[in-house]
Amino acid sequence: xxxxxxxxxRPPAAWWARQDKRAFVVRGTAGSSIALVVALALGFTxxxxxxxxxxxxxxxxxxxxxxxxxxxxLDSDIAETIGALKTYQAELPAAQQSLADAQGKVEAATGxxxxxxxxxxxxxxxxxxxxxxxxxxxxxxxxxxxxxxxIATEAYKNGGIPTNVSLLLGAEGVEDFTESMDMVDQALxxxxxxxxxxxxxxxxxxxxxxxxxxxxAEITELKEKADTALAAEQAARDQAASEKAKxxxxxxxxxxxxxxxxxxxxxxxxxxxxxEQAQQQVNADIAERQRRLIEEARKAEEARQKAEEAHQKAExxxxxxxxxxAAAAExxxxxxxxxxAAAAExxxxxxxxxxAxxxxxxxxxxxxxxxxxxxxPEPPAPAPAEPAPDPRGxxxxxxxxxxxxxxxxxxxxxxxxxxxxxxxxxxxxGIDYGVGCGTPLYAPAAGEVWYADSNVLPGAGxxxxxxxxxxxxxxxxxxxxxxxxLLVSAGQRVSAGQxxxxxxxxxxxxxxxxxxxxxxxxxLVDPMGLL
Length: 531
Prior knowledge:
This protein is an alpha+beta fold. The radius of gyration is 59 Å and the shape is elongated. Strands 1, 4, 5, 6, 7, 8, 9, 10, 11 and 12 form a 10-stranded antiparallel sheet that branches. The model is unreliable at 1-53 (pLDDT under 50). It has helices spanning 13-40, 53-70, 76-157, 164-170, 174-355; strands at residues 404-406, 409-412, 425-428, 431-433, 440-442, 447-454, 462-471, 474-486, 493-494, 499-503, 514-520, 523-525. The protein is built from 5 helices and 12 strands. A hairpin with a 7-residue loop joins β6 and β7 (462-471).
């Protein structure tokens, strides 16, 4: 049977039993781990291929940092525990994938060992068959050699094979000669046939011997491959056991951290409630000061508008009086001119009458002058309505030089972590700059220092609050947290670009960064809309 024809040949049942037992152990233990992972409901089941791990690791680091910063007002050990939980949860899919890959290698190695076992068994069957053929060939060759020996012995006893002449001379008659010739011919044919069969047997034996050597060589090679495959299978099993241990450890660590956080949940919730209340109070204080600023600005604007209206009214009254006086003077002048003209005409007529020795005529009556209307200037047109105030009119610049590591806005509770607030997420009320401790902090615009203090807000560390006043009906304050040091004090005026402090990681911060907030008209807004 050719070695390639193995479709209907299987390894021994005992060998397969050993392989099935090994596979069951690996699959069974892995299955229990996967079931435990599913039971944890961590939400990370997508396989991670090798070429994605670096990108995933970088994204995970950013995600963990964001989770920790979202809890920056808690104790640092709690924030670190939450970050560690997030790390374990995110590493678990990769560990599961590595375990699945290792199990795949075990299955592949097991398959290769099985295939090699089949080939070794086939080769051994072929070797046994060839060995049996060689034994049978040797037996037939021995029998053929015995026949040839017998023929040679008989010929020797009879003085060799007789020639035709000797047969003729020794024959007693024609029939005896013919019979002797037939016997000699038969003996020659038997001898030739035996020799031919022996030659063929020798050729067959040589071919079988060559096949046997080839099969022996193949068996040796296959056994070496089988040993290598068995070593690879064992290595794959060892790797699978190692990967399974990693998965089990991640599951155990994740469960332990989750249990720790669940146990601390009431304390954390109470602390978060206190932090939220303190934040609301701090923001309310700033909002109240802004409200008063806006109210003062509104009253000042109203007073300015009233003063301007009174000035306009007084000016209009003055213009009206001047216009009326000018109109009265003009009418008096015109009336005087009319009376003077009438008197001159009366005198002229009287002179003419006296010259003509006539009686004096009646006096000429002055012409009636129409009243002169005063010319009063129109009041100035009202000023056009001012455009809607633009919050960017404050001209804010970035307070530090560095990348933004976390933006403003709502953050849903990360999958697998605990929703301590019970709201499904949290509001990140500013932006975080990913800068090192000791980075210079500059005033983004001119203003007044409202607060320069430490730990007034739980977990905030050193902070500065700048008031940038009212511009276009808007009032703006900027807040800076976790600073290493403060270079300004409350009530101090600062100019745009002035050095006011250095960034750090004070308070419950998990790493160096700047938390920057902008409060516009009593509400925290996205700083990116003002920069």
